[in-house]
Amino acid sequence: MNESFIRIKANNRGEWLENRKKGIGGSDCSAILGLNRFKTNVGLWEEKVGIKELENNSSEKTKYGHDAEEYLRQLFLLDHTEYELFHDEYMTLQNKKNDFLLASLDGELTNKLNNDKGILEIKTAEVKNKKKLDEWNDQIPTNYYLQCLHYLLVTDYKFVWLRAKIKFYWDSNKQEIRDYYFTREEVEDDLKLLLEKEIEFWNENVLKNKRPGLILPGI
Predict the structure, then answer these.
(1) Helix axes 142-155, 188-200, angle to 10 degrees
(2) Segment 57-91, tens digit of pLDDT
(3) What's the Cα-to-Cα distance from 157 to each of 95, 97, 120, 148, 182, rounded to whole Å?
(4) Measured at the alpha carbon of residue 7, what is the angle toward residues 159 and 96, in degrees to the nearest 5?
(5) How open is the CA angle 151-153-157, to the nearest 5 degrees?
(6) HSE value, Cβ hemisphere, 13 Å, CA-based, for 194
(7) Which pTM was predicted?
(8) Which of 35, 135, 204, 207 qualifies as a cystine partner to 30, CB 3.0-4.6 A?
(9) Cα 11 from chain centroid (whole Å)
(10) Which residues of the chain have pLDDT under 50?
């Protein structure tokens, strides 16, 4: 298969983190568009040009998400036997045409019937109120949706499955696993817009060392 990306293999987490610094990853997209509640586009730019160190998120929730990932991946395969799955925790995918577009995937899926390639994204979340729950109702929260779009840009794959394990803050005994699916064809306009914004951020701000104008998320 003539893939649109190259595979960069790291030997450990430290090498993998270093590779992430060399371009734009999936978790960067929402900041570029001013839609990240925890990091602005200026903060991201400061990381990419070396003004400040990449933030290391080592919270209890992050550790839980990492530890749960493999179990959710295997459960997905049990529920969706039509797919084969490949995953390498320390592998980075680099787009050939735009080599600053990087991806570290939770899984690469291959449909056994037609060999179509797709992306598996795993998320764990705790919703604390109805507004947060609404972000998951019949849709994927914006930051995660953008992350999936970015992975499609890197890989040129045809579809995305996102599996989410959702906890409910008001009821510790209540949990749900939800699956979300969409195809590349359904999101072509969003892919085009995101690619334009990522190219602009990298070429005009990072490579030229030019601080972007601050974009703040809506309240």
Answers:
(1) 80
(2) 667 777 888 888 999 999 999 999 999 999 998 99
(3) 12, 15, 11, 11, 12
(4) 75
(5) 75
(6) 26
(7) 0.93
(8) 35
(9) 21
(10) 219
Q: How far apart are CA 26 and CA 149, in angstroms?
A: 8
Tell me which architecture the domain covering 5-206 has in CATH.
Answer: Alpha-Beta Complex (3.90)
- Render pLDDT for 82-117 as a digit per residue (tens, 0 to 9): 999 999 989 999 999 999 999 999 999 999 999 999
Total Cβ atoms within 10 A of residue 66: 13
Spatial CB neighbours of 146, under 8 Å, sequence gap ≥ 6: 26, 29, 30, 33, 35, 194
CA distance 212 to 109: 36
Residue ranges of domains in the chain: 5-206
- From the list 191, 199, 112, the residue with the least C-alpha distance to 155 is 191
Give the separation between CA 219 and CA 217, rounded to whole angstroms. Answer: 6
Cα 31 to Cα 23, 25, 147, 194, distances in angstroms: 14, 11, 11, 12
Cα–Cα distance measured from residue 151 to residue 143, given in angstroms and rounded to the nearest whole number:
13
